[in-house]
């Protein structure tokens, strides 16, 4: 079984684009923010009259524990200040009288109704991230205190995700483990390449067979459909206009909503912005360079330490990293619990740690462990990105990632285009060079059973209230210029954060948090050129 994360050169970076907050002692679960390509709908906006039974529905709020998909999430949802509900939406908006599905919702209500402005809808990104879990966590954030005094904080699990029903299901936990442990892609013989292509077809076939509603669900899982769900949610919450907070891929959702429903927007705060004018190939090349930049920042931080696992010379860090990881292709190291650390998971764990500078200590310790024949830290990081709990259960976030990515992007089947992109990616990010030859193999989406439903485009949203875009100078996944471009395209304001991480709002920076809260509550944008450190 070939690796789904390296079955195509074009997936070498894309699958790593998740927003993650990791603590040195105990890395916390990622909020899965990635950045597949921005889209515009390939079908007309549904007739509001045909959706009236959905937009007029009354939500039945109650205890959240039954919505939890794992024990840690159950503990998080046990907070009595939270309540949950289900939102019914059409499976296919072209057939609103047909089959329906449900989305899980979580709400932290305003304590004083007299202070309430409305709802603040949150999406943490992905695709595949749980908005319910994100909202439950953010409600506790000190920086969110001004917001929860004025808004009901509402997180939703997009279609196919978490508590939403049905969930996307492709690989079993055992199949996921086997896939991640397999580094046999180095067989680039005709037979080996044929095996890889067969694996991509097998993966898509399993997604169809194991997901309720099968192909219909996969055909209606993309950004086009989630944006329409968001408008049904807005109406069901009783809000005339949407106040929205989106991180990373969530900025794509916010932008797409603004394009489709500009007259229904109150405020948009977009953090870790996707440059939606780039096509999929150019995005990956740009993002690869972003990861290299952040890896270089990690290297400078590391070599200043006496315990740096990659030596004491900044110019030698990339080579030292490759020398350390490449042997894992043929000789993985033990990682506890009967599992080993593959080259693939070592690379995945490393990139996961690059999302937050607070994780660099843990990463350095993990690289030092490899020298001693142990892969515990990096496997833990890779598990958290992959959505694997200690009992071997996966949360299906990666399955959703691929399902959405494949309908949000035009298919790339020209091997020459793939090969050129791969070469440019590695030129811009040499630390990503793997243990397999550079190849032009096709990716999962080239054989995906459902056709694309959206296309890349330059965003346009006329008469839109000015949004606030936050961009971080050394963001690995959504490079700084992406935020600059999005703010310009949407005629919004840009707030710059000087740091090396992915997303920043409500993560403890008082300058950013105050500016964001002032915008969401009062509609006041920061002055042009505002920078926070």
Question: What does it look like?
Answer:
This protein has 533 residues and is of the alpha/beta class. 38% of the residues lie in helices and 12% in strands. The chain has 19 helices and 13 strands. The strands form three sheets. A nine-stranded mixed sheet has the order 2-3-5-4-6-7-11-12-13, sandwiched between helices. The chain has a two-stranded antiparallel ribbon with strand order 1-10. Strands 8-9 form a two-stranded antiparallel ribbon. α19 (510-522) links the parallel β12 (493-497) and β13 (531-532).
Write the layout of secondary structure elements.
Layout lengths: L10 H4 L25 E2 L10 H4 L15 H7 L4 E9 L9 E9 L9 E6 L7 H8 L6 H4 L2 E6 L16 H9 L8 H21 L3 H6 L3 H14 L5 E6 L1 H12 L4 E7 L8 H24 L13 H9 L7 E4 L2 E3 L1 H11 L6 H12 L4 H11 L10 H12 L6 H14 L25 E2 L12 E5 L7 H10 L3 E5 L12 H13 L8 E2 L1
Parallel strand pairs: 4-5, 4-6, 6-7, 7-11, 11-12, 12-13
Antiparallel strand pairs: 1-10, 2-3, 3-5, 8-9
Helix pairs in contact: 9-10, 11-17, 13-15
Computed Rg:
22 Å
Q: How much beta, percentage-wise?
A: 5-15%
What is the end-to-end distance? 46 Å
Query: Total number of β-strand segments?
Result: 13
Report the helical percentage.
25-40%
The main pleated sheet reads as: 9 strands, mixed
**Largest sheet: spatial strand order:** 2-3-5-4-6-7-11-12-13
What are the low-pLDDT stretches, counting only 5+ consecutive residues below 50?
A: 1-39, 436-440
Overall SS class: alpha/beta
Principal-axes shape call: globular
Average pLDDT works out at 88
